[in-house]
Amino acid sequence: MVSVIKNILIILVAIFLSFIHCTATGQASTSATYHVGLSDKILDFSDIKFIDEDTKVPLEEIAAYLDIPIEQEKGITYIRKNGIEIIFNENSKIISKNGAPLDWYPIVKINGKLFISVNFIATEMGYKVHDFQKQKTQRIYRDDYGHMSHENYEVFLNQFLNKQTSTLPTKTEVKSKANIYLTFDDGPNRYTGINNSILKKYNVHATFFFVGNYMKKNKPIIDAVVKDGHYIGTHSMTHDKEKVYKSSKSFIDEMNEGAKLIKQMTGNEAKLVRVPYGSKPDLTVTMQSELIKKGYKLWDWDVDSRDWKYTDKEADQIVKNVKAGIEKSYKSGDRDIIVLLHDRSQTTKALPQIIEWLQKEGYTLKTYEPEHHIVKNFLHDTSL
Ligand SMILES: [Zn+2]
Q1: What are the residues facing 232 on neighbouring strands?
Q2: Residue 312 CA to chain centroid, in angstroms?
Q3: Mind listing the pLDDT tens digit for each residue in 212-267?
Q4: Which of 10, 134, 261, 356 is the most buried (most CB within 10 A)?
């Protein structure tokens, strides 16, 4: 009898202590049965928690899905993207956005693991969030990314949830390894048209940097590139090293005229430039600040295919260079990899193999998205 009372007392004390613990940390955490969707998918998280009326998921996992770089040092976590910096200091428990402390806790640490509010991270990164209450699902989406209607997504969710409750093993979404941006310089010319039709065949998108002086006589090719959804940036008017880099005036004139011509011929803004021969070593500090002043962004590359130096028969070597370069970048932790290619005959021979390999390896091919600019220049200038 005495031991029964003793056991009850122990249980009561334990309940009391765990109550104090929860109150002290402010986390009445329960593992909820919530789901999180992204565009037309349902994401696969190792854990989803419902804390303070808010769905939270492991920070590392959602960062990988939304392609957000995270850095951690001495108990401080930095989340930086698109000019937004969110800092979580585990020691002071302060969470700040662009230097200003927040008055709530979108990030919490549970059993050594950081969880972040889905609503918070999604909205901060420019996504919208829609709640499907019946299906206990939060859907993250963007209107500038293609996605099915909420009605259709609800049907899809119901099918998914029905399948999940049955004994069938559920299919989990395959994560992309990294984003690959194929870029083609020196067009437009007849090979631009061929590269464009190859991209179309594989239903993927890329980025073209056109030389202004070749544009006027290649209107039909330019029209096809625009119609098929690729981004066009300028690669100067003349591509003549002597002229382009002669002075900061001639440099910015070449860029302005190139961008203006793209706007005239396609109707699209062309704020992304690739300077001939890359930004090192010819681009001066003044040229750099001219670009910033005029609101341009500058892309160099991570992987140089060196395609220009091979013949058609040596196209395999281009494929090899691209594979090796991407694998190296991926291993170094890069998840947005830019590949330099050209509108040349030998490149059209290598392109199908390159795309097939990327798709087989689970990479995602993307075109440049101005609203999600990624800093990629040899100058390490984050304003460009
Ligand atoms: Zn070039």
Answers
A1: 208
A2: 33
A3: 999 999 999 999 999 999 999 999 999 999 999 999 999 999 999 999 999 999 99
A4: 261
CA–CA distance, 284 with 292 (Å, rounded to integer) = 13
Global pTM value? 0.58
Cα–ligand 1 centroid distance for 223 (angstroms): 21
- Exactly one of 185, 186, 307, 343 is catalytic; name it: 185
DSSP annotation of 299: B
DSSP state of 104: S
Q: Which CATH number fits domain 179-372: 3.20.20.370, 2.60.40.1600, 3.40.640.10, 1.20.1260.10?
A: 3.20.20.370
If you write DSSP's letter for every residue of 160-204 in order, what string do you get?
A: HHHHHHSSSPPPPPPPPS-EEEEEEEEE-SHHHHHHHHHHHHTT-
324 C-alpha to center of ligand 1: Å? 22
Tokens of 79: 């989340």
> Which of the following is catalytic: 35, 147, 239, 342?
342
Q: Which amino acid is present at 6?
A: K
How far is residue 118's CA from residue 316's CA, in Å, rounded to a whole number?
44
- The CATH class that applies to domain 30-165 reads alpha beta
Q: In terms of DSSP bridges, do strands 137-141 and 41-42 run parallel, antiparallel, or are they unpaired?
A: unpaired
Contact indicator for 322, 342 with CB cutoff of 8 Å = no
Is 342 one of the catalytic residues? yes
CA-closest candidate to residue 278, choices 192, 345, 209, 177? 209
d(CA 344, CA 190): 9
Centre of ligand 1 from the C-alpha of residue 244, in Å: 12
Structure tokens at 143: 């209107």
> Tell me: the pLDDT tens digits for 91-117?
888 899 999 998 888 998 887 889 899
Residue reference for tokens 């670009």: 291
Query: Domain locations in the chain?
Result: 30-165, 179-372
Sign of CA dihedral 16, 17, 19, 23: positive
The dihedral built from the CA positions of residue 222, 223, 228 and 231, taken in this order, carries a sign that is positive
